[in-house]
């Protein structure tokens, strides 16, 4: 069980390390403005609106209120282009573009380039960092031929703040986790082969006690299943009725059994029973039990019979003649 828990813990650490390394890769591989996807989409939408406003202002200043403004193209997450199908006042571009970006809460630094649509050559351009409000626009005042132009705005990556960045935190966290994994692996104990803890042989089941095969009474015994009687030194094979009657007496020693009870217990399976049958079979059993001086089937006048058993210690002199008479 401990090995299984240790393995699960180690695998969990590996998964955490993989996620952190993957996050660092994405963090460092990205270039330019670092923004979440949803924030980047919002930024691109605001740039789109600002550049379309700039185009509208430039065309309006040129007296053109009918030319359709084409869609802004996004080349990557920092670069945007807008195609102008007629010439415009380049000297007014910096102020109008700056105002439009501020209206849409865009404060990042950027570079502007104006390309010729047909040749793709750079015609004009400037950087917002180098733009002096009191000085003339770089490349301004030059004659601009009628034609098609592409205004490109490329935003610069945001400078890293002086305070520790999230990158440093992630790197530090990754280092701690990697160190922890190394410690866990270093302390990993080799898995010992499982030993067979079961006994080589199954414990022997204790044998169920054997049921007694003989009913003991006095110094005689009667077989439980077979109608065999051993009285003293003699062995007899009883008839069905003799065995049934003797079993009844042995089951109730020292008790008076009335004649009616004996008839029902021994002869109930016969249709007609003669009362003298009991006396005949009792006489037979008395003869068979003569070899055992401790037993006597005594007649109880007017009631029935009783099997009397006497122990030898009850007669210290060993004379049981009076009992068996």
UniProtKB/TrEMBL annotation:
The answer to whether the entry has keyword DNA-binding is yes
Q: Where are the transmembrane segments?
A: 12-30, 168-186
UniProt domain OmpR/PhoB-type: residue ranges: 211-309
In its UniProt record, which GO terms are filed under biological process?
phosphorelay signal transduction system; regulation of DNA-templated transcription
Record flagged with keyword DNA-binding: yes
PROSITE patterns to which the protein is assigned, alphabetical: OMPR_PHOB
Q: Which domain of life is it from?
A: Bacteria
- What InterPro entries does UniProt report for this protein, alphabetically? OmpR/PhoB-type_DNA-bd, Sig_transdc_resp-reg_C-effctor, WH-like_DNA-bd_sf
**DNA-binding region (UniProt annotation):** 211-309
The record's GO molecular-function terms, alphabetically, read: DNA binding
Q: What keyword terms does UniProt attach to this protein?
A: DNA-binding, Membrane, Transmembrane, Transmembrane helix
Q: What is this protein called?
A: OmpR/PhoB-type domain-containing protein
Can you name the source organism? Arsenicibacter rosenii
